[in-house]
Each structure stands twice: as structure tokens, then as C-alpha cells.
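Ligand-bound model needed. biotin.
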Amino acid sequence: MPMQRELLKILADGRTHSGTEIGQRIGVSRTAVWKSMQTLQRTLDIEIYAVRGRGYRLGGVVELLDAAAIRAAMTPAASKALTRLELLLCIDSTNRYLMEHLDTQDGFAVLAERQTAGRGRRGRVWVSPFGGNIYLSLLWRFQSGPSDLAGLGLAVAVAIARCLQQNGVTDIGLKWPNDILWQGKKLCGVLLELRGESAGPCKVVVGLGMNVRMAQTVGEGIDQPWVDLETILGCPVSRNTLVGQLLSELIETMKVFQAQGLSPFLDAWRELDRYHHQAVELHLPDRTIRGIACGVDKHGALIVEHEGVRKSYFAGEISLKPDKSQTKSAAKDMWQ
Ligand code: BTN
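Prediction:
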């Protein structure tokens, strides 16, 4: 992998580089350069354009992930708490990787340029092409058991929303428990994976996938409306700066949640709740609940009103009821 990273660094400026130049810079023959280009194409599932007599180039400029640039964008306190930062070119899933490193010290973050089997919520695949998006996992240890961490995903969603707002993104909405939407389209997803004793302690891997720059063609297979950050902002986004800011917010969130639980985040979550008072369907493994979304309780569970009765749910996938014109009162007429 080090050789591939070296090649990529040279090509990242988007310009054409001859095999001779590349070979000299990294100290290998032109044939070795050619072979490594083939491997790199396969590893990252990208096109490297080979122009006869001139050399190699990528389809455009790529800002590769860079540890120094990420740390430079972090607050000093967060940078101190980030005990280890690993940047990978390609992995199946950064969450899977961290789940196999649970014995490592707290504050271990892993990012990848590409994931081949990115994990989404409810067994979905997270589409993770090379070079434009953020695939980030952070390992944190809590003294409490899993039941006290039920609201952590909501706190994480608030942290991400704050970070986006600080970067000028308006119109952010949250979909329970932790989807970050822009004008109803998915911009960022969060997957928490936990392991621990019921009485604690508990290790948590916080996985965050954010669409920053993604070609329409690559995202064609995604089964819901989605958007990327560069489309929203209409300008290039520095992934390294954004990752640094996200890590700072996430680490601060872990500390606050550890000390005070969900309560400091509840008002912010409720303010961003996109489904509040909407007619929704909550899909559980064995049935679908239809009702009105009534926000979240103090533990982070979703409250759904059905036939005049309010119940809290900790699991499930929420969607707007297919007829989106339903208002609260219209929906009440139907179901109560
Ligand atoms: C969702 O379905 O909304 C959650 C998506 C989470 C994707 C991120 S990308 C980094 C981390 N590694 C994974 O395999 N998944 C999470």
C-alpha cells in the first residue's frame, strides 16, 4: 500500500505525469510504475488515464486525506483526546475495522478513501466510492452499559448538524434516530456499533458517512433521495478541514454525553426534527406502526401516536406516510 499511496500523491494534482518522472520520484522502474497503476485502478475502482508518450493522470484533482491537515483543523483539546488517527486507502468497512480493534485506547479514529463493503443501518450497504466523501469511524469507551447509550446516536446527529451549520449549510433536518438530511435528502448517515457488559463498561464505534462530492452516476444505486455537500454549497469543500471539525465536535459530544447523557442535546435535536407532527410509518422487523410522529422522549426513543395512544420506540425505520399531503389533523381523522 505505501507505494500506491505515493503514486496517488503524485497523481492527486490532476495533471499528467510521465512514467519516467514517477519512477524517479519513487525510485522504481517504469514497468513497476505501470504495474502499480493497474493495481491502484483495481484497488480504488477508478480510472487512471494513460496517454501514450505522455504519462498518467486522474480524472481530476483529489484532496487526499492528510493527518497533519486534519489535526490542524481540530481544537487543541480534541486533538489531544484523539490518541490515534489512521488513514487507509481502501478497506471493506472502517466500522468493521475498529470493531476488531476494540482493545485499542479510546479516541482512535479511522478514515478511508474508499470502502468496499460500507455498512449502513439495518443491514444496508453504504455506497463508498474513492476520493470524494467522508468515511469515518471513532472508537470511544463509556463507563455505562448499552441501555444508557440509547440516545447517543441522537447526540451524534446534533454534533454533525452543528458542524454543517457552522460551514454555512442551512435547511438541515434530522430523521430519527440519526440521519442528517438537507431539504429531505440524505446527506450523512451514522451507524453506532456497541460491545460491552449490560452494567458497563461499553465500547462504541461511531461510524459516520458523509456525501461530500459524489457523481450522480455513482450514487444511482442508492435507494433514497440523496445529496452531496458540494452541490449544497456550490463550491469545493476541503475534506481534511471538515474531518477535523467533525472529529472535534464528535469528541466533545462523547465527553458531554459521558458526563450528562442526552439532555444537553435534546432541545437541538427537537428543533431539527424534520418529521415532527407528520403522518409516518415506523417499520419494525415484524410489523409497521402508522401514526403521528411526536418527537423523542428524554431517552431518545421516538414517540408515535396511534389511535390516540402515545408509545415510545427505540428501534425501527421511520418514513413519511406515502401520501405526503397528510397533515396532523387529516391523519387524525383517518386513524382516530
Ligand atoms: C446509515 O445507514 O445511515 C449509516 C451509514 C454509516 C456509514 C458509515 S461510513 C463509515 C462507517 N463505516 C461503515 O462501514 N459504516 C459507517
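Residues 96 and 174 are 25 Å apart (CA to CA).
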